[in-house]
Design a protein that fits this description.
Elements lengths: L4 H6 L4 E2 L16 E3 L16 H8 L8 H21 L10 E2 L8 H18 L11
InterPro entries: DUF6146 (IPR046144)
Keywords: Signal
Pfam family, one: DUF6146
Length: 137
Amino acid sequence: MKKLIFLLSILMLSLSCSTQNNAANQNKDNAPIQAQKNEDGEYDLEVLDGQWNYFINAVAKPMNMYSETYLKTKNQFLVSEWNSYYFAGRYRNIIESSIDYDPNIDYGLKFEYKLYQVFAFVKWKYGLKLNGLGATD
């Protein structure tokens, strides 16, 4: 059972989610998730999981509790950890694609917040503890 299909679909508007989970074609690498701008010229994430709205409204800390610099720093570390797990083949039922994240790009506070909350959501829903997340995230 692939638990992270939702995560690959997370970034539909702003990320190109191109996973290849064809059993006959498992030797091919999954395409990395890449950030893209929406029609408004802003980076944004869309999470396609039934529990996301509950998580973001009832569990996640509000966006105003974070600075963009803090989130960018955390996301850089978390993406690095995520990608190392992906390339090592760890947590294959959860991590099905790498994330192409460039810390030199100004994604904006909203994007950085949502990306950070994606990692917190994976921790909350699947119990995947990433070292970049604190005990209270």
